[in-house]
Amino acid sequence: MSTSRTVICLLRNDLRLHDNEVFHWAQRNAEHIVPLYCFDPGHYLGTANYNLPRTGPFRLRFLLDSIQDLRTSLIQRGR
């Protein structure tokens, strides 16, 4: 019976693969990588100080574009 090593790679703030140390570690040490990014509603919904939105439309667009770029990079790497 062979065993394979699977690593769940929780991606939080550093969504670029080229300099993500956790992802590079996973590539060196795991046979299978499960990349995971979770949207936390607490970061995006409601208001913060001075009754301003927690995440404005430009920041949200940047985050969504970054997630899409991350997905494309993972697909290109076969992950």
UniProtKB/TrEMBL annotation:
Chain ranges of the Photolyase/cryptochrome alpha/beta domain: 5-79
One family name in Pfam for this protein: DNA_photolyase
GO terms of biological process kind: photoreactive repair
Domain of life: Eukaryota
Keyword terms: Chromophore
Transmembrane domains' residue ranges: none
SUPFAM superfamilies: Cryptochrome/photolyase, N-terminal domain (SSF52425)
GO MF term list: damaged DNA binding; deoxyribodipyrimidine photo-lyase activity; FAD binding
Protein name per the record: Cryptochrome DASH-like
UniProt organism field: Salvelinus namaycush (Lake trout)
